[in-house]
Amino acid sequence: MAKRKEGVAVDTTEERREEVDFDEEKLREDLERQDIKAFRDEYLLLHPYDRAIFYEKAGPELRRTMYYFLSPKEMAEIFETSEIEEEEYEEFLQEMEATYAAEMISFMFVDNAVDVLKELDKSQSVSYLTLMDKDAAAQIKELLHYEEYTAGSIMTTEYVTVPQNSTVRSAMNILRIQAPSAETIYYVFVVDDDNVLTGVVSLRDLITSEEDVLIESIMNERVVSVLVSDDQEDVARTTQDYNLLAVPVVDFQQHILGIVTVDDVLDVLEEEASDDYSKLAGVSNMDTFDKNSFSAAKKRVPWLIILLILGMITANLIDMFTDTISQVALLAAFIPLIAGTAGNSGTQALAVAVRGIATRDIEEESKLKLLIREAGTGLITGLICGVFVIGLIFFWKHELIIGMLVGAAIFVSIFAATISGSFIPLFMHKMKIDPAVASGPFITTLNDLISILIYLGLATTFINLL
Fold this sequence. Notes:
Shape: elongated
CATH architecture of the largest domain: Orthogonal Bundle
Largest sheet: 3 strands, mixed
Number of domains: 3
Oligomer: single chain
Strand order of the largest sheet: 1-2-3
Distance between the termini: 65 Å
Number of helices: 24
Order of helices and strands: HHHHHHHHHHHHEHEEHHEHEEHHHHHHHH
């Protein structure tokens, strides 16, 4: 989960994993000897990340001892800082007594608790909610009903608000009371009597203002906020664009419902990037590393079947031109060359278009410009590659006509592949379909079909000249 707390730099690199600066063996010995005092004295002085690393590596038996040595509140911080995979939550929670696990979850930040419970069976989630404190359970249930991948599903309800008609003195008193349970205190959100978001005050402004000054006189009324139904990727981009540490989440009446903090934004960006990369690679899900061959195969087979079907269409297309190939056998030697070049060109154009859409560099008014630019790029690269191939074939086989045929086929194929590689993701984006679905293997196979049709079609048309 790797929660990033305020003011704490957490290094999550593999190098850091190997260079943990504590006596791991001594901690293990303390646990094995059931020496609770020695263990707690050493363990609780560690950086939260080091505690999490030891916890993950300790193994089930030693972890069960840790649950007796540490309170649910102390374990909640460790569980949040750890990098346990989502599908492993159930395994770790089952090591604990049910009441201990429920209490630990209740001490976690609400958004993190929701993330954990969403990965469990519904019956297990209900059991933990029943066992935990009613107030904590109510907060968690409030977020559980929001649709997945929306602002509501990733927001936390642990934030600080102050009335707009309060003074700085009273706002600071509220901050002191709410700060221990708030996920961030750098932004204090200002609301009216109906809990409508009216402004925001930074911690800096509160500290530097006179105590008798009214909050409404120092607050910033131009608050950047997101709707509770907004897609999580849009929320992440908004936070990134405005360089915010947290963004408030509101309903359609502008009532504040929660906040999305920068640590959640980083998780969303990582998740979305992984999802896009999976689709570009022609794999359904690469969020987690598969532990067995069957699981990995199950994700890849559907795409491979689709690509096999397209490949069979390509094979059938080649079979239609058997007579042409049998008359000039040398034509068959250049099929992989033309198909491969077209596929590579289409993949390049696809990468440019998908990246432009993901980063929002491509707006509605510039999509036509992109297509025109890629068309020009296809013409130039196709012409250069076509002329180059003509020269190669002439010096290799001394066949000028065949060289010109292959060169012309490459020229047209690269142009067509570049257009398709940029147009298809733009069209899918327009139709509200994830453009990353136009994956590299899909575009490559499609361009194979188009390029072979162009090549063998030209060869059949000019067969009398060969």
